[in-house]
Amino acid sequence: MQLVFASNNKNKIKEIQQLLPTTIQVLSLADIGCHEEIPETADTIEGNAILKANYVTKNYGYDCFADDTGLEVEALNGAPGVYSARYAGEPSNSNANMDKLLFALQQEQNREAQFKTVITLNFKGKQKLFEGVAKGSITMVRSGIEGFGYDPVFCPNGFKETFAEMPSSLKNEISHRGKATQLLIAFLNDLK
């Protein structure tokens, strides 16, 4: 089975391909000739995942899935949320985003946070959403070199290390994207 993953983020594509069974071949946006930036104008994580999936299906005719992820920090009333990738402004820069987040939480005791991923699947004319959440806290300083995005400052509940300090196999098992992808896989396996 071939499915388009509505992303050109090499880190996300690699992570998703590791999670999916080998029977599913993932095509990136570049693989189908989509080089334009897909607008992410919704004000929710779910909304952006739906926009991206619908864009590919409508303009390229492929069954596809798209995800959107946000980091929601309790003390910041859920920010950066839907604006996580561009929290420190354009262009998207993970280091600047982490700097801004750590600065915003400098005086804050409550460091509770969660990552939330929503995957929208457009498959054979139907649409289905899958959600994964990883609860944890924001560390005081960055730690680790694995992963991407906010991984060096996010410590999942029940662990002493950040996502960036974990081997990808463990992170993929417990992460927000891992949980949403497991639901996607279970759904696709049920179709066989």
Fold topology:
Elements (H helix, E strand, L loop, with lengths): L1 E4 L4 H10 L5 E3 L17 H16 L3 E10 L6 E2 L12 H11 L7 E12 L2 E13 L15 E3 L11 H7 L1 H15 L2
Parallel strand pairs: 1-2, 1-3
Antiparallel strand pairs: 3-4, 3-5, 5-6, 6-7
Any descriptors?
192 residues, 31% helix, globular
Structure characterization notes:
By secondary structure, this protein is α/β, with parallel strands linked by helices. It has a single domain (2-190), classed as Alpha-Beta Complex (Maf protein), CATH 3.90.950. It has 5 helices and 7 strands, in the order E-H-E-H-E-E-H-E-E-E-H-H. It has helices at 10-19, 45-60, 94-104, 168-174, 176-190; strands at 2-5, 25-27, 64-73, 80-81, 112-123, 126-138, 154-156. Strands 1, 2, 3, 4, 5, 6 and 7 form a 7-stranded mixed β-sheet that branches. The model has no long low-confidence stretch (mean pLDDT 93).
Strand content: 15-25%
Q: What is the CATH architecture descriptor?
A: Alpha-Beta Complex
Per the principal axes of the C-alpha atoms, what is the gross shape?
Answer: globular
End-to-end C-alpha gap: 10 Å
Topology as a string of helices (H) and strands (E): EHEHEEHEEEHH
In terms of structural class, how would the helical and strand content be classed? alpha/beta
How much helicity do the residues have?
A: 25-40%
Q: What's the quaternary structure here?
A: single chain
The counted number of beta strands is 7
Number of helices: 5
Low-confidence stretches: none
Q: Quote the CATH topology.
A: Maf protein
* Mean pLDDT over the residues: 93
Compute the CA-based radius of gyration: 16 Å
CATH class: Alpha Beta
What kind of sheet is the major sheet? Answer: 7 strands, mixed
The number of domains? 1
